[in-house]
């Protein structure tokens, strides 16, 4: 039987210092560790690794989801920090004022300084 002790989200950055600034200014996050061209953040007990690569920003999917207990308040705070939420009109997903209703969850998406798509979500049930 497999026995994992932790998991980590991994996000690419074409400019690690720009990404550090974005995550500090927009998400109020400071890296807990910086080593070998990578930054490691701890978010609610989960780790996120940002590393420098020329392949940053090429994914067209959600790379990271941050859960919150109050999506509206979180979006207001992020908008106040200059975060712009995406609008989508896709089969099965339509946003209004940046928010999609998805069964027992509401979500919104934004793009970070490295063109990674990040979701903010709230469970409603």
Rg is 15 Å
Give the biggest beta sheet. 4 strands, mixed
The CATH homology group name: 2,3-Dihydroxybiphenyl 1,2-Dioxygenase, domain 1
Q: What's the average pLDDT? A: 95
> Which sequence of strands runs across the widest sheet?
1-4-3-2
CATH class: Alpha Beta
Element string (H = helix, E = strand): EHEEEEHEEEEE
Percentage beta strand: 35-45%
Q: How would you sum up the global shape?
A: globular
CATH fold naming: 2,3-Dihydroxybiphenyl 1,2-Dioxygenase, domain 1
Jot down its keywords.
single chain, 125 residues, four-stranded mixed sheet, 10 strands, Glyas_Bleomycin-R_OHBP_Dase, Enzyme related to lactoylglutathione lyase
Task: Report what the structure shows.
With 125 residues, the chain is an alpha+beta fold. The longest helix is centred in the N-terminal third of the chain and has 10 residues. 16% of the residues lie in helices and 39% in strands. The protein starts with 7 loop residues before the first strand and ends with a strand. A hairpin with a 2-residue loop joins β2 and β3. The chain has a single domain, classed as Roll (2,3-Dihydroxybiphenyl 1,2-Dioxygenase, domain 1), CATH 3.10.180. The strands form 3 sheets. The chain has a 4-stranded mixed beta sheet. The chain is globular and about 40 Å long.
